[in-house]
Design brief:
It is a single chain. The chain is of the alpha/beta class. The chain is about 20% helix and about 25% strand. It is built from 4 helices and 19 strands. Strands 3-6-9-14-17-19 form a 6-stranded parallel β-sheet, with no helix packed on it. It has a 5-stranded parallel β-sheet with strand order 2-5-8-13-16, with no helix packed on it. The chain is globular and about 50 Å long. The termini are far apart.
Length: about 180
């Protein structure tokens, strides 16, 4: 049986992002994100109903500030007490898991898609998706970028503006581009 492009994407295989089913899912996400971004803040709601319905899972007391952007939303899983500051972008072509108590500063970007390096295949929309995982009590500083496939361990800190290309161990602090442990 031939897999759909969505099934390939979810299986971590090369897929074509120029697909009608994936386009419909991206449109669904744009509608939910627009509703979230345009809604007046409601002190009774920590997570807007539009995002709560879109995300794969979320714990209690999650806060996503507007503006927010995601590619699909259906691959995002938030733990309890998660905070995403204004301007966060999550391109969730693969699973994005953010653990309990984690905080993302303004304009943090999480990317899962890796476009094909071959020019002709890239032009045809071929890409592969790698999951991004943040453990519990992680702090990601403003404007940091998390690249496809990285895991940030429990209690780790990523400094503002860092570009994370490799896994970050639990309890570690990384800064810079590319992000690295400080010199001792």
């Amino acid at each position: 049986m031939t897999k759909t492009e969505r099934q390939k994407m979810q299986a971590g295989e090369w897929y074509c992002c120029l697909d009608s089913e994936l386009a419909a899912l991206r449109h669904q996400a744009r509608v939910a994100v627009h509703q979230h971004n345009m809604a007046p803040p409601d002190p009774a709601e920590n997570l807007s109903p539009a995002l709560a319905a879109l995300f794969a899972a979320h714990g209690g007391n999650c806060m996503v500030e507007a503006p927010f952007h995601c590619a699909y939303g259906i691959n995002i899983r938030l733990g309890r007490n998660v905070y995403l500051n204004a301007g966060c972008t999550i391109l969730d072509t693969a699973s994005v898991t953010i653990g309990d108590g984690s905080m993302l500063g303004p304009n943090v970007q999480i990317y899962c898609a890796q476009h094909h390096k071959d020019r002709a295949l890239r032009a045809r929309g071929l890409e592969i998706a790698y999951p991004v995982t943040l453990g519990q009590d992680v702090w990601i500083g403003g404007a940091a970028i998390l690249m496809p496939g990285v895991t940030i361990g429990d209690g780790a800190i990523v400094g503002a503006g860092a570009v994370v290309t490799k896994d970050v161990p639990a309890g570690a602090t990384v800064t810079g581009n590319p992000a690295r442990l400080p010199d001792r």
